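I am still getting used to backbone structure tokens and would like to learn alongside you. To get us started, please write out a protein record for me. Start from the sequence, derive the backbone structure tokens from it, and show both lines together. Once you have written the record down, we can walk along the chain together:
***
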Amino acid sequence: MNIIDLIPGSPRTWLLGALLLAVFAAGWSSNGWRMGEQLAVAEKTHSDTLGEIARAAARQVSDQLDARVELEQHLAELDSTKHKELTDAEGENERLQRLYSGADAERKRLRIAARIAAADLVVSQTTGSSGLGDGASVELSERAGSAVWDIRAGMIRDQKKLEYLQGYVRTLTGQTAATP
């Protein structure tokens, strides 16, 4: 190789430059194609991963909706059951109150059976009542008897409300204990 051959503008320099450029371009394009293929594979993998994530999220949302529907059904069933129990108990109390209010004067008196402690028995024997033993009956006035029915109705409502609320909390917390 001569020095003249290395001077810019000589045909051999141009040929060598063109050859280097061709090799560089061929390497670049083949590498680019490989990178394009790798990019396509990466995009496909990414797309598949996103699809799996979306399907898993959809399953999770579906499961949560199913659990919510089941919970709402349990609560509706509890509400229906406890409401029926309350209605039945109030109906029974009203029936007993009607029987009481429709009775004649003698049977209209509400009698409450009571057990008397031994210390109280001594007091009642000194007042003139003998032979009471450990049991006694107390008669209430008509007004007091009516108040007893109202108090009983309030107690029934309160008890049924408490049972409902306990069942509601048990249902929400996932407990399966039977309601008292």
Notes: The first helix runs from residue 3 to 6. The chain has four helices and two strands. The chain has a mean pLDDT of 78. The chain has one domain: 13-173.
